[in-house]
């Protein structure tokens, strides 16, 4: 009998988030990864999940050609989270419940580092998430000649000096101190130690150039450094994170979930992190991750009996109204419901924002972004009276009016909508609303407001 403790656990697919400034090419890059995987890989090998795309190892190695020898890897492939845009960093968390294992930071080589790029880097650093930089749109560099078909390694050196020095400078500025051991600009071939070196991979989401290299590097990073974190108990009770809470016709409120451990089945009792106490409910339906071809045909979701990690899926269940994006989802299995509720509460408490009796009100779209916003507020020494996930509603305005100090009669919203009633009420009650999709912009706007106000009062 083999010793159980020595038998290797199941390995799940590493989960990859794609981050970057708007228009730098996150969506295009994901499309290109899907596209090249479909063209080069075996038909049907790549699967479109809810909120994610799975690229199995054999497809990675087909795309990457000689760059990847599949026998070197025992991880099953890569799962790319498909929610690009500025929301994607909310899948990164500093403590328990981080969803993405690795990230790709997309930077447009012409546009360079922009506010959301810097924000993404700060959050990657705060959460300790290893990442590589995809220096995108290399096809637009004058003199860049993709038809020459020269390996990127040779042309990169000669033709991307400007880009490279900017990346070097900015990366150094933002994360130089992280490396300690000294920052290297010769990164492309030196991603072995992601603590000290950040891999910069020139790519074009348009021509597909560099995409094989990117997949290779991601696979290598996961395999070399993160494998132990991919160990899961596939047959155990499912554990995942809510990506989005959405209305689905015929199902009411549903959860888009990335399952990173275990199995979830139809009929399972689950505990879901919510605004007040965790929700205990029963899975009414698991909705099938769509095949790639179905994206265009709007085929109705198909109910499936079970799903295993790592996967993106939709869960339909009663009573999900208060569920929060970014919150944990746990299958109870043969444990006590109360134990699992406690577990979920403990995980939520880890990201709970420290609040004071006097301060501003903050709102964010997901738990992850709320945490990032709260960290930024703490750094800027702005006290927070209340911090919640969700759109700005009249009751937030009511809360803001309870502040004693006039400068705290303020709501800061990150990636959220302001409900019409709330806007009207804020006007009436003289409560200021700030919103932005860049956290540091939000903090800066508020600081500027406070400074101006102080100047006026002098
Ligand atoms: P996102 O906002 O980061 O998701 O950016 P998109 O993927 O929507 O890309 C923004 C724009 O840049 C679109 O018009 C794309 O066609 C274009 N784009 C993206 N990647 C490339 C690239 O590698 N080369 C060129 N020339 N254009 C690109």
TrEMBL record:
Function according to Swiss-Prot or TrEMBL: Function in general translation initiation by promoting the binding of the formylmethionine-tRNA to ribosomes. Seems to function along with eIF-2.
Originating organism: Halobacterium litoreum
Annotated Tr-type G domain residues: 11-226
Family named by the database record: Belongs to the TRAFAC class translation factor GTPase superfamily. Classic translation factor GTPase family. IF-2 subfamily.
Keywords: GTP-binding, Initiation factor, Nucleotide-binding, Protein biosynthesis
Top-level taxonomic group: Archaea
List of residues binding GTP: 20-27, 82-86, 136-139
Residues of the full protein shown: 1 to 458 of 598
Protein name, as recorded: Probable translation initiation factor IF-2
Record flagged with keyword DNA damage: no
Gene Ontology MF term list: GTP binding; GTPase activity; translation initiation factor activity
């Amino acid at each position: 009998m083999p010793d159980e403790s020595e038998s290797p656990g199941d390995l799940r697919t590493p989960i990859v988030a794609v981050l970057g400034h708007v228009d730098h090419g996150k969506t295009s890059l994901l499309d290109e990864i899907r596209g090249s995987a479909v063209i080069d890989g075996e038909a049907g090998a790549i699967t479109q999940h809810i909120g994610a795309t799975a690229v199995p190892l054999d497809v990675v190695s087909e795309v990457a050609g000689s760059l990847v020898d599949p026998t070197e890897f025992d991880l099953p492939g890569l799962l790319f989270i498909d929610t690009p845009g500025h929301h994607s960093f909310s899948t990164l968390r500093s403590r328990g419940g981080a969803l993405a294992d690795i990230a790709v930071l997309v930077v447009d080589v012409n546009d360079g580092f922009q506010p959301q790029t810097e924000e993404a880097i700060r959050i990657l650093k705060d959460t300790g998430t290893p990442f590589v930089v995809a220096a995108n749109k290399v096809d637009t560099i004058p003199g860049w000649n993709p038809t020459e078909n020269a390996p990127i390694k040779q042309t990169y050196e000669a033709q991307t000096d400007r880009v490279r020095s900017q990346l070097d400078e900015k990366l150094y500025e933002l994360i130089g101190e992280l490396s300690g051991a000294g920052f290297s600009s010769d990164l492309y071939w030196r991603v072995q130690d992601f603590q000290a070196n950040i891999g910069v991979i020139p790519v074009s989401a348009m021509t597909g150039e560099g995409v094989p290299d990117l997949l290779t590097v991601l696979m290598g990073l996961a395999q070399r450094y993160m494998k132990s974190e991919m160990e899961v108990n596939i047959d155990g009770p499912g554990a995942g994170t809510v990506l989005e809470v959405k209305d689905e016709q015929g199902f009411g409120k549903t959860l888009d979930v990335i399952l990173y451990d275990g199995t979830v089945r139809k009929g399972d009792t689950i505990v879901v992190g919510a605004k007040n106490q965790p929700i205990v409910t029963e899975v009414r339906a698991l909705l099938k991750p769509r095949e790639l071809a179905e994206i265009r045909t709007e085929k109705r979701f198909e109910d499936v009996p079970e799903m295993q990690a790592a996967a993106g899926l939709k869960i339909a269940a009663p009573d999900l109204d208060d569920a929060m994006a970014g919150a944990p989802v746990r299958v109870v299995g043969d444990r006590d419901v109360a134990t699992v509720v406690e577990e979920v509460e403990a995980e939520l408490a880890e990201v709970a924002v420290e609040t004071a009796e006097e301060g501003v009100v903050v709102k964010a779209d997901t738990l992850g972004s709320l945490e990032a916003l709260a960290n930024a507020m703490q750094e800027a020494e702005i006290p927070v009276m209340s911090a919640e996930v969700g759109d700005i509603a009249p009751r937030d305005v009511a809360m803001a009016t309870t502040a004693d100090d006039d400068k705290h009669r303020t709501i800061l919203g990150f990636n959220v909508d302001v409900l019409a009633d709330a806007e009207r009420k804020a006007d009436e009650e003289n409560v200021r609303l700030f919103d932005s999709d860049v956290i540091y912009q939000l903090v800066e706007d508020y600081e500027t407001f406070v400074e101006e106000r102080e100047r006026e009062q002098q």
